[in-house]
Structure formats: C-alpha cells, structure tokens
Amino acid sequence: MASKPSKIQKTISRQQERIAAGDYYEAHQQLRTISSRYVKAQDWDAAIDVLYGGALALLKAGQGGSGGDLGLMLVDVLGKSERKVDGGTKGKLLTLLRTFPPNEPTKKRYVTEMIAWSASAGEYPHGDPELHHVAGTLYAEEAEPYDAERHLTLGTKDSAEILAKCEYEWYTQDESHTAPLYAARCIFPYLLTSNLRSANKAYLIFTSRLSSSNKSLMVQEVSSTSSDMRVYPSLPLLNFLGLLLLAVQRGSADLYKQLAKHYAPYVKEVGSWDDALATIGEMYFGIKIPRQGNPLFDMMGTMMGFGGASPKPRPKKVEAQVPPAEGLD
C-alpha cells in the first residue's frame, strides 16, 4: 500500500530543516534509513520522492558527497523498480546533475550510473540523448573536454555546436597549426556514429570560429554547381576534413580514394587518424580492410579516451607533427 503523499512531504520537510540548520550528517543518515525502509516495502514512489528531495537539499547546501550518495541511491531504485525513462524522471535526474557543486568527485559516477540506467530502461542502447547532452554540456563548461566528447557525441541535435565550441576553446591553448586535429575530434566521432548532419555542423562551427578569430588566416571560397567550400591553403588537413565530409555526403568511393591518396603524406604526419579513416572507408564506401577486434569500439576508445590508460585531466595540447600554418597568429 502506497504511503500518503503528506507523510512523505513531512519526512522530507523535517530533513530539509535539519539540513538548513547544518546538521548534514544526521539528515543524510535519516534519509538513507527512511528510503531503505520504503525500498524494502517496494513503495518505489515514496523512496524516489524521499531520495530526490533529500539529495536536492543536500546538493543545494553544498554537500556534494552526501547529496551525490542519495542521488546514486535514487538511480539504483529506478533500476530496481524497473522504472522506464520518461520526462518526469529525467527532469529529476537532470535537476540533481545541474545542482552538483563544481568538481565534485561523486558527479562522474552519478553521470555514469544515470546513463547506464537510461540505456537499460529506455529506447537508446547507448543512453538517453538528452541526458548525454546535458552531461556533456556541463563538462564542456567545466573545461573537461574528454568527458564532454564522450557525451556530446551521443547527445541531441544541439550537441554538435557545444562540442565544436569546446574543441575550439581547447585548440586555442595549442599551436596554431594544430587546428585540424581538434576539428577532427568532433568530426570523426560523429561520422563513426553515423551522424553526418552533426559532423557537418561541427565542421562549419569550428571553421567559422577559426576564420573569425584569425583575420590574417588566408581563406579561399571555392564554388561549383553542386557545392560551396572554404579552402585553407595553410591548413591542408582542414581541407581534407571538409572534402571527406563532401565525399561521405555524395557516397563517392572514388572521391574518397583520391582524397586518401592526395593527403596521405599529411595524414601520415598525424599518425593517429588511420584507424578512423579505415573505419569510415568501410562504413560509407564499402572499402574492406581486414582487421582484428572491433574497429569502431577501438577507434572511439582511441579518439575519446574510452579505453586503455586514463588520460590526464586536461592536457594542454594534442600532440602531432604538422607543418606550421602561415597566416595564423
């Protein structure tokens, strides 16, 4: 039998008063005990309300560890109760996520558990796009590009703009000639997840920022009956990325092969694009290249830090040997 809403609200209000008085530990323990009691009775709605209200109050009070703990309990209850993804539940989870204090360690685990629940309880096997978008946006705002990439790549139609701007801000800390390396960090993952529209959008936003922020950068407008394109004489790899997107859009294997041959010396200098381009060749042009393992997973891991050794928190540069670009400050 479900508990009366008034009783639940009284419970939450009583603990909110404790939190307001600074009695964080006692409130946290009481909320854990009360919610566990509801879970044992399988009164899922009551458990969810208590955990959400308590977590929100603690997070607003700056108690990231205690609030995050209750947030994790909330996600666990969503799984145990087999609650499906819906607008109301997502709203609760995102409200908590936005309330976490900056750099709170519990937040990353909360995001991971939240996405995992949405993958198992919703229609998207890699997690709900809206949850990915908000998480990625927050990581971008906190200058955490690796985490931003992971989530914005699997986000909504609005995620490409956030990711492109994040990569551009990251690029501004590096040498001027490395611009294509940072552009590729949003273009390749979108192509590898069959999201050509977002790949094109990210390229357009990144290059537009590059041009507007570097007035001395030489840019040539090239037009044909079927397309218009900006060419950057001092950044051949950026031209390669633009032409790659055009080849994918047209589905032209011949154009792709010509690009791969013409730009091979520049791509070789980078040293880390080969797997991505091989996978793109298979996905879009049917060019079979024998490989072992799962190339898509391996490539995403390499590009975005999913696998292998953990990346440094915020490296200043993306290492590559690329000729200096003329006309960039």
Question: What's this entry about, in short?
Answer:
The protein is built from 16 helices and two strands.
Overall description:
- It is a single chain.
- The chain has 329 residues and is mostly helical.
- It is 66% helix and 2% strand.
- The protein is built from 16 helices and two strands.
- The chain has a two-stranded antiparallel sheet with strand order 1-2.
- Helix 1 runs antiparallel to helix 2.
- The chain starts with a helix and ends in a 25-residue tail after the last helix.
- The C terminus is likely disordered.
Give unreliable regions as ranges. 305-329
Distance between the termini: 69 Å
Quaternary structure annotation: single chain
Q: What is the tally of beta strands? A: 2
Q: Which properties best describe this structure?
A:
329 residues, mainly alpha, two-stranded antiparallel ribbon
Topology diagram in text:
Layout: H1 5-20, H2 24-40, H3 44-60, H4 64-80, H5 87-99, H6 106-121, H7 129-141, H8 145-152, H9 159-171, H10 179-192, H11 196-213, E1 220-223, E2 228-231, H12 236-250, H13 253-262, H14 264-270, H15 274-285, H16 295-304
Antiparallel strand pairs: 1-2
